[in-house]
């Protein structure tokens, strides 16, 4: 078995570009929501003429759609991800625009029949409502309140759970922009880490789990995590996911 130092060094050296979690295979697992987000957007994009993916990451999920619409666009804020997304989406005819997560979106009013977003850092409801055509739909899988709180609390001590990502907040924010929520589903899903290197890579990649995380700053807690995994075989936490669909009435 690899040593604590070797595992930490490995997790700290993995490149962060893109939003591909295949590196975790055999080292960590996470249950997926039963609604199947990639399948849903694949079905939806096949029925519209124009679609936008907000905060596409490396475009990995959008690249799986089988029948792209005539107009396919995506936004991403992090330059390394922009380059990855352009490579992934070019075969579909997709155009990737660099844009800040907080907006504005670089598109005219009423540009898209469908707007999608997987795990946005922030949902810019006014901009989504603006770029949707009348009768258009926003479909998004989001990170819910309290996601991975067991990991956050292990590393930082008990932390308050913000309701900024609650389903109630999302529904109210959509309604405030004149959007009608037509679907809202929530699931709590098991996540499991089998070595401390996977924990390190996850905390580097999913920055909001432990804000300001560095290996040096959290080495003592990482050592405690390593002992926990060695003793128990894994570290278990739970992700919170919700699916929200909102329609702009015509």
From TrEMBL:
GO terms, biological process: methylation
Domain of life of the native organism: Bacteria
Cleavable signal peptide: none
Q: Where is the Methyltransferase type domain?
A: 52-138
Concerning InterPro entries, the annotation shows: 23S_rRNA_MeTrnsfrase_RlmA (IPR052939), Methyltransf_11 (IPR013216), SAM-dependent_MTases_sf (IPR029063)
For this UniProt record, the keywords arranged alphabetically read as follows: Methyltransferase, Transferase
Asked if the keyword Methyltransferase belongs to this entry, the reply reads: yes
Is Transferase tagged as a keyword? yes
Q: What's an example of a GO molecular-function annotation for this chain?
A: methyltransferase activity
Gene3D superfamilies, alphabetically? Vaccinia Virus protein VP39 (3.40.50.150)
Q: Name one Pfam family in it.
A: Methyltransf_11
Q: What is this protein called?
A: Class I SAM-dependent methyltransferase
Q: Which organism is it from?
A: Allokutzneria oryzae
């Amino acid at each position: 078995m690899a040593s604590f130092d070797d595992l930490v060094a490995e997790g700290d050296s993995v490149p962060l570009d893109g939003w591909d979690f295949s590196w975790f295979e055999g080292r960590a697992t996470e249950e997926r929501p039963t609604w199947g987000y990639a399948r849903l957007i694949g079905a939806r994009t096949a029925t519209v003429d124009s679609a936008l993916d907000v905060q596409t990451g490396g475009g990995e999920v959008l690249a799986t759609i089988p029948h792209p619409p005539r107009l396919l666009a995506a936004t991403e804020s992090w330059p390394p991800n922009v380059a990855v997304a352009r490579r992934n989406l070019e075969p579909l005819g997709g155009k990737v625009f660099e844009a800040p997560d907080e907006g504005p979106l670089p598109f005219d009013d009423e540009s898209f029949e469908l707007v999608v977003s997987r795990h946005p850092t922030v949902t810019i409801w006014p901009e989504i409502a603006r770029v949707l055509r009348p009768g258009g739909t926003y479909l998004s899988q989001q990170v819910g309140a309290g996601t991975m709180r067991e990991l956050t609390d292990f590393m930082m001590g008990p932390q308050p759970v913000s309701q900024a990502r609650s389903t109630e907040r999302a529904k109210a924010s959509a309604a405030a922009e004149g959007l009608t929520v037509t679907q809202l589903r929530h699931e709590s899903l098991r996540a499991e880490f089998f070595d401390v290197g996977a924990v390190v890579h996850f905390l580097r990649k999913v920055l909001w789990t432990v804000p300001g995380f560095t290996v040096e700053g959290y080495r003592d807690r990482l050592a405690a995590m390593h002992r926990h995994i060695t003793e128990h075989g894994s570290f278990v936490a739970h992700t919170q996911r919700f699916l929200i669909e909102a329609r702009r009435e015509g």
